[in-house]
Amino acid sequence: MMSQMNKLIILRGYPGSGKTTIGKALAEENVGVFVDHNSILTFIAKITEEDDGIYEDIARLELAITKKLLNDGKTAIVGRGFSSIDSLSPYISLANSLNIRYQILRLDVEENLLMNRVQSPERQNDFNPTTSSESLKLWIQSNGIEDIDRELIIDNSKALVAVIDTIKNAIKL
Predict the structure, then answer these.
(1) C-alpha distances in angstroms, 130 versus 6, 127, 141, 143, 159?
(2) Closest listed residue to residue 77, CA positions, set 118, 145, 28
């Protein structure tokens, strides 16, 4: 019996931990399709400021797109804060219902590097509610990252090429 090739890759971490950067890089490496809620908000809907409460609707759309990709035999890559197991449960349930393997990757970065990243000029052009050290501190206080079984913690303070290589080796389930 041939093993199933598609899988779900979940990137999680604090704002500025590199979820979007890593997701895009993995997609460029043909690892899978990156489903990016920031792109949906920024490039499709042209929303770069306040989302006026549509974030949950965007999250449902992201889940629906992920389901379609997995049903079509593709690997899907999603990345959001996913601070708690509850925030991950729709994706884990989806993968389990489709009998798809999934891997949770928590991108770990020191707080001072997070602070620098959230204030970068590139981040100001996308939908990102955390674009200052104050907003990042508030996010961290409100959304502490819970440890989750089966997740791999990836040090994302290294060079992008090294991080991508680490991830590509880790996801060979």
Answers:
(1) 32, 9, 13, 13, 23
(2) 28
Q: What is the pTM of this model?
A: 0.82
Phi/psi region, residue 73 (left: phi>0; alpha: psi -120 to 50; beta: rest), is: left
Can you spell out the DSSP letters for 141-165?
A: HHSPPPP-TTEEEEETTS-HHHHHH
Q: Residue 39 is encoded by which pair of tokens?
A: 């792109």
How far apart are the C-alpha atoms of 111 and 133, rounded to whole Å?
10
Which tens digit of pLDDT belongs to each residue from 29-84? 999 999 987 777 665 655 555 656 677 788 888 999 999 999 999 999 999 877 78
Enumerate the H helices of the chain as residue ranges.
19-28, 37-39, 55-71, 85-97, 111-118, 133-142, 160-170
Angle between helices 55-71 and 85-97 (to 10 degrees): 30
Question: Are the beta carbons of 106 and 153 closer than 8 angstroms?
Answer: yes
Contact 21, 77 (CB under 8 A): no
Spell out the residues 6+ positions from residue 14 whose beta carbon is closer than 8 angstroms to its own: 81, 109, 114, 136, 139, 140, 145
Per the document, the length of the chain is 173
